Amino acid sequence: MKIKFINNCTYIFIMLIFLFSCNPKCKIGSIEVSELLMVSSTDKKYNYCELLEKSIKNDETSIKKLSLLNFDNAVCYDHGSILVDLINNIGEEKYIKALKPLNNKEKNKVKSYLEVGLLYYKNEKYKDKSIKEVFPKIFAFTVN
Fold it and tell me: Which candidate, 7, 46, 4, places its Cα nearest to that of 26?
């Protein structure tokens, strides 16, 4: 009985190590990408962490690509909150500059991501605030 218990504990321990070592992780600076977002981006063949890392370094092509990735359902909230983090890191002006060539459909997509990202965002300072209140310049850019 004692040996069986040890074997079960060993088995559980090995499974936990396997489980946690296989989960994709990504943290760029203070921005931590959720497991859900990592799994979804991997499924879609997006190199999310690389795009985020380049975006934080003000690479305009990466900012645009990251902002226009296609996600559905709950992943939109995670992606939107990452975009909020990105804007907090690089500023509204640099973000808008990278998105200058967007058409109206693409602007609406970005606006939608930011709206749901603010709803989901972990910082209380944005609680119950709209994109117009938090990022007025980006709001103006997305509605023009």
Answer: 46
Amino acid (one-letter) located at 97: K
- The proportion of the chain whose per-residue pLDDT surpasses 90, expressed as a percent, equals 70
Label residues 80-113 b or e (16+ Cβ within 10 Å = b).
bbbbbbbbbbbebebbbebbeebeeeebebbbeb
pTM for the model: 0.82
H or E element in which residue 63 lies? helix 60-67
Q: How many residues does the chain have?
A: 144
Q: Per-residue pLDDT tens for 80-108?
A: 999 999 999 999 999 999 999 899 999 99
Give, as one character, the DSSP assignment of residue 122.
Answer: S
pLDDT at 85: 95
pLDDT of residue 125: 84
Nearest Cα residue to 63 out of 40, 26, 104, 93 = 93
Q: How many Å apart are CA 41 and CA 61, to the nearest integer?
A: 18
Contact 63, 98 (CB under 8 A): yes
